[in-house]
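All the exercises in this workshop are built on plain-text protein records. The record below serves as our worked example for the rest of this section.
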Amino acid sequence: MNKTLVGIVFSIIFSFVAPVWADEFYIVRDLTTQKCTVVDKRPTTDTRTITLADDTIYKSRAEAEVGIKRITVCTGQK
């Protein structure tokens, strides 16, 4: 009984802590300035001027910076 309870408690705690360890980076585009940037949080749907430039989730900021160069809406910015 105690081992089962400890296992359940550990699973619950781990499910809340694990997302903190996951690095996710997104390329977003500001529709008012027409510029793309790398962010570490997915934009919410209530932000009308910020949108995802593509659907890719990058594992590192450096990988996302390289990804900006591949996206057509981002390559025209200065």
In short: Residues 23-78 form one domain. The radius of gyration is 18 Å. Residues 46 and 52 are 13 Å apart (CA to CA). The chain has one domain: 23-78.
